[in-house]
């Protein structure tokens, strides 16, 4: 069994310039923009496999991979003024099922700046015979942190204590205007999360450690802590933000409102809004699914680390009978 979620297929290409007259040829997903573009080819392992189709990946695996690539994409380097900006929003559009096949990931800086930056990413699948298809489009927005001299509405990290007795609802708010902290991971029950009793590896079943605060078999809103067991790539340490992106894509499965064996409710996208940067290995989900009559499915989650709420995630769902 693989000890990482992806394997890098060398060589990795880091390309700069406009690709015109400088001897460079942009890789797939890189445009002729003068902004720096980084491309790499990776191979998913069985640890990235998703629940709906054994030939496709769980959306959390590429979301985490792209997030880690965004973190490494720094205009002028991390020590420059532009490198002081923090990712405040992440967006992923899953245009096709992401196959268990070689993938090309590219990221580029769309809008550099000292206060706001925009990054873009694309994931292409190698379908064989020289055929490649765009299967995921991603974006990130970096902004400056709130200055220390500006009054804020939420407590600093660590000031909001956990309430182990209260049911944490996604709409429950403290006087500070933020959801209450979830009970800690130690309060949860270890569960192997799989749609069947198979021992096969998968992103939910083997790559992710889970501690449930609610009954994982019950339909409806639920709370769970998650921690990735394996690195995204061999020799690459997982960042808290990559861990958060991986966990955020579980909202629709954690809060399933319909039975898995009779319905599909696959998310076509994932959007994450951060109120602060996550810390540590454990990421908590307080998730619920909305299925309004005549509308579209939506899963929404409050994201936590062990210090309290971090942000929110939203998934647009494609719902149908099997």
Description:
There is one protein chain. The chain is mainly β. It has a single domain, classed as Porin (Beta Barrel), CATH 2.40.160.210. It contains four helices and 14 strands. Strands 1, 2, 3, 4, 5, 6, 7, 8, 9, 10, 11, 12, 13 and 14 form a 14-stranded antiparallel beta sheet that branches. A hairpin with a 4-residue loop joins strand 4 and strand 5. Helix 1 runs antiparallel to helix 3. About 11% of the residues have low confidence.
Secondary-structure map with pairings?
Blueprint: E1 6-15, E2 37-44, H1 60-72, E3 86-94, E4 103-111, E5 116-128, E6 131-143, E7 189-190, H2 203-207, E8 208-212, E9 222-228, H3 240-248, H4 251-254, E10 263-267, E11 269-274, E12 283-290, E13 297-305, E14 308-321
Antiparallel strand pairs: 1-2, 2-4, 3-6, 3-11, 4-5, 5-6, 7-8, 8-9, 9-12, 10-14, 11-14, 12-13, 13-14
Keywords, please?
single chain, 322 residues, mainly beta, Porin, 14-stranded antiparallel beta sheet, 4 helices, 10% helix, globular
Distance between the termini: 31 Å
The tally of strands reads 14
Task: Identify the CATH architecture.
Answer: Beta Barrel
- Average per-residue pLDDT, rounded, comes to 84
Low-confidence blocks of residues: 11-26, 159-176
CATH class: Mainly Beta
* N-to-C order of helices and strands: EEHEEEEEHEEHHEEEEE
> Which structural category fits the helices and strands?
mainly beta
The CATH H-level superfamily is Acyl-CoA thioesterase, double hotdog domain
Q: Helical percent range?
A: under 10%
> What's the number of helices?
4
**How many discrete domains?**
1
Approximate shape = globular
Question: How is the CATH topology named?
Answer: Porin
């Amino acid at each position: 069994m693989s000890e990482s979620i992806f394997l890098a297929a060398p060589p990795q290409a880091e390309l700069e310039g406009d690709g015109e007259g400088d001897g460079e040829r942009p890789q797939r997903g890189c445009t002729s923009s003068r902004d720096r573009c980084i491309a790499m080819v990776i191979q998913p392992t069985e640890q990235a496999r998703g629940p709906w189709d054994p030939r496709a990946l769980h959306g959390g695996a590429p979301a985490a991979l792209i997030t880690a690539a965004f973190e490494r994409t720094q205009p002028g380097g991390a020590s420059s003024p532009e490198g002081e900006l923090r990712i405040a929003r992440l967006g992923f559009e899953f245009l096709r099922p992401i196959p268990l096949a070689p993938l090309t990931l590219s990221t580029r800086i769309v809008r550099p700046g000292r206060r706001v930056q925009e990054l873009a990413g694309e994931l292409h699948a190698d379908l064989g015979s020289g055929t490649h298809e765009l299967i995921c489009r991603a974006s990130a927005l970096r902004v400056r942190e709130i200055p220390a001299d500006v009054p804020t509405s939420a407590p600093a990290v660590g000031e909001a204590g956990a309430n182990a007795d209260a049911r944490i609802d996604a709409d429950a708010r403290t006087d500070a205007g933020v959801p209450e902290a979830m009970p800690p991971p130690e309060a949860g029950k270890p569960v192997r999360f799989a749609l069947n009793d198979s021992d096969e590896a998968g992103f939910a079943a083997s790559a992710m450690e889970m501690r449930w605060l609610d009954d994982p078999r019950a339909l409806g809103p639920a709370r769970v802590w998650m921690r990735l067991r394996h690195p995204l790539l061999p020799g690459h340490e997982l960042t808290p933000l990559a861990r958060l992106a991986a966990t955020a894509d579980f909202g629709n499965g954690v809060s399933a409102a319909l039975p898995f064996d009779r319905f599909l409710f696959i998310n076509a996208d994932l959007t994450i809004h951060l109120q602060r940067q996550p810390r540590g290995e454990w990421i908590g989900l307080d998730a619920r699914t909305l299925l309004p009559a005549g509308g579209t499915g939506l899963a929404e989650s409050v994201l936590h680390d062990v210090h309290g709420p971090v942000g929110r995630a939203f998934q647009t769902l494609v719902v149908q009978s099997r």
